[in-house]
What we know:
- The chain has helices at 36-45, 70-73, 90-101, and strands at residues 7-11, 14-23, 49-55, 63-68.
- The model has no long low-confidence stretch (mean pLDDT 88).
- A hairpin with a 2-residue loop joins β1 (7-11) and β2.
- 9% of the residues are buried.
- The protein has a four-stranded mixed sheet, with helices on one face.
- It is an alpha+beta fold.
Amino acid sequence: ENLGYDFVVTVGSRDLFIELKTSRAKWKNWEHSLSPNEFKVALKEGVDYFLCIIDRVFENSCEIYFIQDPAGKADGFLFDAPWKSMGMKMSDVITRIKAEEGILDD
């Protein structure tokens, strides 16, 4: 349903929004991420949003991590290869701004 979380846990009058991620192997690098919608919901819900990560999900030695307010704790962003499609030429940006502002070139 693209809610931005997988389930809600109600404690008293508070709803806690839980997003669940799992992996078969031990969590080492960039295996887990939030979708754009999950990130937006995490920003909105703040301390009531939890990212739950289970690594080695099918093993008895699995580990469970709950990260409260993951969007609020983010202090940077990883720009991986798909970001290339967002690239643009700065000359095109400048030309567009000049046109919007009515600036004529000499």
